[in-house]
């Protein structure tokens, strides 16, 4: 949940505002994420769609993960505009609600698609025979539909809070709740715990269990078998990238969100504590949005034949370009001959 300088006791006026810090960090960071997210995921989708005939369950999950990232990244310019205007919202209530909503749909879609990819890799390495029947392209598509529905429904509470007018400045605000109301805290804490357990802890434990099984299986193989299995290398790369994404992006956000909601219910907090907590909200929310930039690394380094797909696409483009050039040459030479005939 996105929080800002909320009224916390009678001494709020004694605390300096972090608005300048917040506006600078959000506008800068979201701009960078927008550029890298659009380029990385856009290129990945282009390659994945152009090579769709080589489809596999992992391929299906990568397409859906890239679509989820693009959906989120395309709403970030609205946030950049808002914070560049120093917290003034002029885009209407609908866009305010939908841009907050898409950020959290992407967050939990990313977590669940990574979980599905980890389970798929686990079955391929630990149970290679059963994997042929358990994991199919059609089943993976059904799993993706389930993930989209679950993430969309579970994130729907973020559609409830839209734009509001700050009574003290008469400025329309977005991405930040109205003034603190103590009766909302129990509801927010309940929603946080549901998201924490089902949207973060449970998927993370499943991923860790899969990775333990993968590593144990790879270590038990003979040296010859290890060299022959390219899936083992891709699995190790996926383990590293997914764990880094969780440690850098998802974990700080969920831990900080839980601590912050409990902090809001405390009495007698000091000004320095409030400022530190508010700044940590800014940093961890930026890290959560950055998961859209980490996912292209997953495609490139651990996707099944992703780099070969990229090379294949480049070769196809080059061949098409040569064919077009070859077709143009006779037309150019014929045009030149006609011109000479006219001159003579």
The CATH H-level homologous superfamily: Rhodopsin 7-helix transmembrane proteins
Low-confidence stretches: 3-13
Counted beta strands: 2
- Determine the structural class based on helices, strands and strand pairing: mainly alpha
CATH architecture: Up-down Bundle
- How many individual domains? 1
Mean pLDDT: 83
What share of the residues lie within helices?
A: over 70%
Order of strands across the main sheet: 1-2
Q: Write the element-wise H/E pattern from the N-terminal end onward.
A: HHHHHHEEHHHHHH
Q: What is the CA–CA distance across the termini?
A: 80 Å
CATH topology: Rhopdopsin 7-helix transmembrane proteins
Classified by CATH, the class is Mainly Alpha
> Which sheet architecture does the biggest sheet show?
2 strands, antiparallel
